Each structure stands twice: as structure tokens, then as C-alpha cells.
Amino acid sequence: MLEVARDLVGCVVSHAGASGVIVETEAYHDSEPACHAFVGLTNRTRTLFGPPGRAYVYRSYGIHALLNAVCEPEGIGAAVLIRALEPLDGIELMRTRRGLGRVEQLSSGPGKLTQALGIDLTENDTPLTGAGPVAIYPCPTARGDVELVVSQRIGITKAVELPWRFCAVGSVHVSRRN
DNA sequence: CATGGGATTGACT
DNA sequence: GTCAATCCCATGC
CA–C1' span, A154 to C9, in Å? Predict the structure, then answer.
């Protein structure tokens, strides 16, 4: 799971005419209380405990949709939260969806990037492999080898100490800089 | 069936 | 720096 979180930085996520390069991720696992799957298998966490390579999308604070990639085998509740993107294609469409002009603010946060890509709860439990509406794949240009900085996860109240956040060094598109 | 708490954001002091 | 918006869902009565 941590390996997936590291590998996803530098990959491309695309949906509905827009795409971006992942510059920030966080890992979550059912063994620690910050993870939704910590409470066990419920209707909400069904996707998390399902097969890997699918999207877990949920509503945060009643307002935002947050995108995760489920990443451990079926029966283990673990996922990687996609926290920020560097816009790649469909930037005008992203601007329209976000109602903003500045590229640095189009997708520099987990709620912002789903809005920019047009992702909502209907994409929950769909495959990320290319067979579904949301696709994640390696960056076509030589962007794969990114230097990472590891830190504590953001915006949570439990298991705050785990160093499970991964950011691309120097990116101006991460949600919060060091 | 009622309640409370978020893996956030943007507006405002 | 503070704070409200807003809804899904797990929990408890």
C-alpha cells in the first residue's frame, strides 16, 4: 500500500476530458483509526474491502468528493487518497468547472481535483484500469521518477503520527507546502 | 428514528 | 487566524 502511494505520484489521472499528474498522495489502512475501514466492513467501506484497482469516492464534510485508489487484495481495507494534481490536459474545462483562472489552484487539494475533473460519488467502485470512467496510468512523458518528500498526513485527528503522506518535491500544485 | 462527526474549502476578521 | 456550509453514514436509543 505504501509502495502504491509512492508509485502513484507521477502517474496521470483522467476523467471526462481533463487529466493531471499526481503530485501528492496519502495512504490509509484498516489497521489504523484514521482509515474509514477501521470500523470494519459496512455499507460505506464495502468498496475499500473490495478488489484493488478500483475507485473509492466518498463525500467529505457534506460538500466535496474525495478520490482514492483501493490497493490491497480483497478483504483488506486499504486505499491511497489522491490529494493533488498538476493539471495536464483539459485545463480550460477544469477552469470552467472550478470557476477559477489560476492553474496552481485548479487541483491543489483532494476536493479541488475531483471538482476539476468532474468526479463525484457515481464514480465510486468503478475500475481505474481504463475500463471505467476514471483512469490512472503512468505518465507518457518522462515524469515517472519524481523525488518525494514524506510527512505526516493532513486534516485528520487520529493516527496523526504516521508518515504516510507523499509529495513531489518542489511542486507548486500540492495542497500545502513544507 | 435522531444525532454527531468528518481524509475540506473559501470567505471573512 | 476563525468559521460555516452541508450530507452521508455509523452508532445508539
Answer: 22
Residue A106 Cα distances to A18, A80, A101, A110, A129, angstroms: 11, 21, 8, 11, 24
Residues whose CB is below 7 A of strand B: A 26, 28, 34-37, 48, 56, 59-64, 66, 68, 79, 81, 98, 105, 109-112, 153-158, 175
Query: Which of A22, A27, A30 is closest to A49 using CA atoms?
Result: A30
Using one digit for the tens of pLDDT, what is the confidence trace for A97-119? 999 889 999 999 999 999 999 99
Query: What are A30-39's pLDDT values in tens digits?
Result: 999 999 999 9
User: A54-58, A75-79, A143-147: which has the minimum mean pLDDT?
Assistant: A143-147
Is the CB of residue A129 less than 8 Å from the CB of residue A53? yes
Cα dihedral sign, A66-A68-A74-A78: negative
Residue A40: nearest nucleotide (C-alpha to C1'): C10
Contact A77, A58 (CB under 8 A): no
Query: pTM above the 0.85 mark?
Result: yes
Nucleotide nearest to A45 (CA to C1'): C9
